[in-house]
Amino acid sequence: MSVSTFGDKGKLVLPPAKQLTIVTCMDARIDPAASLGIPEGDAHIIRNAGGSAKDALRSIVISQRLLGTREVAVFHHTNCGMLTFSTDQLRGIVKDAAPGDAAVAKQVDEIEFLEFSDIHAAVKSDVEFLKASPLVLKETEITGWTYDVETGKIERVV
Amino acid sequence: MSVSTFGDKGKLVLPPAKQLTIVTCMDARIDPAASLGIPEGDAHIIRNAGGSAKDALRSIVISQRLLGTREVAVFHHTNCGMLTFSTDQLRGIVKDAAPGDAAVAKQVDEIEFLEFSDIHAAVKSDVEFLKASPLVLKETEITGWTYDVETGKIERVV
Fold first, then answer.
1. ipTM of the complex
2. pTM of the predicted model as reported, rounded to 2 decimal places
3. Residues A57-92: pLDDT tens digits?
4. Mean pLDDT by 10-residue block, N- to C-terminus, for chain B (158 residues)?
5. Which residues of this UniProt protein bind Zn(2+) (chains A, B) (predicted)?
6. Rounded CA gap, A69 and A44, in Å?
C-alpha cells in the first residue's frame, strides 16, 4: 500500500475499538485480518510460537491496564509446529550446533519453549492460565478457539 | 472467509516460504499483510507489546532451528503505546488496583515491561540485541524498520 492511498486508516486511534486482544501463533499461514475476520483498529494482535498465553502475559497486562481491552481470545491451530518437538530436543539441537559454547548452553537451558501435544488441550490450558492469573483483570471475558489451516474453519473450544 | 472459498490457501506448507521472521507490535492499527506487504505463507509474524525482540527470542529460536528462517526484520511504529509509560508506573497501576494483594505485587514486580522513549533507538537496540544473542544463528540477516501509522510510510533504520 502506498502512502498516497493510505487514506482514513491514518485516523485510527491507539486503543483497540472492540476492547479485544487476540493471542495466536506466528505461523506464516495465519492472517488474523483475513483468517479470523478482525479488521484493522479493532484488536490487539499478539503472536508468538504456538500462540502461548503465558508468553503473552506482559503484552496482555499492557493491553488491559493502559489501553482498555477487556476481552481475550486465544487461538491455536492445526498442523502447528509446536506439536513436533519437545523443549529438551530443541535445547539439544541448539547446543549441538555450538559445541562447548557455555553461553549458548546456559541461555537455552533458561528458555521453556512451551510446546504442546494437543491443540484442544493447549487452548483449554491457556484459557485456564489467564483465568487464574492475578495479573489479568477479573472481569475479562476469555475464550479459546481452534483454527484449521487447511480449511479455514474456526471452532470455539471454551 | 468461509470454508468453501478457502481454496489454495489450505495447501500452504508449515515453513515460511521466504525464510523470514517479522517482529512487530500488537497495535490494532498494524496489519502486516496489508501494511508491510507480507503475503500469507511467506513469513513468521511475531507480535507483542512494542514489537520487542527480547520478548520474541523464544519464538525466533523455534522459527530458525525448527522451521528454517534465516532473516529477521524488526518493525517499531510511530504513536506506540510503549512510549507512554514506565515499568515502575505500570507496576504501580497494577498494584493500586489490588491493594494488599501479595501475589499481584510479586508477579508484577517480576515483569520487565520493555517500554522505550524513542522508536529509532528502540529499533537499533533490538537489532543489536539479536546480533549479540548467542541463540540467534550467526548467518541471520537482521534489519530494523519504522512504520508510520498515520501515513503508512516504512523506513529502514538499520
1. 0.95
2. 0.95
3. 999 999 999 999 999 999 999 999 999 999 999 999
4. 63 88 96 84 96 98 97 97 97 97 98 98 98 98 96 95
5. 25, 27, 77, 80
6. 8
CATH code linked to domain B15-84+115-156: 3.40.1050.10
The ranges assigned to domains in chain A are 15-84+115-156
C-alpha cell at B119: 522508536
Contact flag B58-A134 (C-beta cutoff 8 Å): no
Cα dist from B145 to A47, A154, B35, B72, B126, whole Å: 19, 33, 13, 11, 11
* Euclidean distance between CA atoms B122 and B74, whole angstroms: 10
Residues 8-47 (B) with a CB less than 8 A from some CB of A: 9-12, 14-17, 21, 26-31, 33-35, 37, 40-47
B101 CB-contact burial (10 Å; exposed 0-12 / middle 13-18 / buried 19+): middle
First-to-final CA distance of chain A: 37
Set of chain B residues whose Cβ sits within 8 Å of the Cβ of A41 = 28-29
Alpha-carbon torsion (B16, A94, A51, A61), positive or negative: negative
- Return all residues near B21 (Cβ < 8 A) that are at least 6 apart: A26, B43, B44, B45, B46, B59, B60, B63, B64, B69, B71, B72, B73
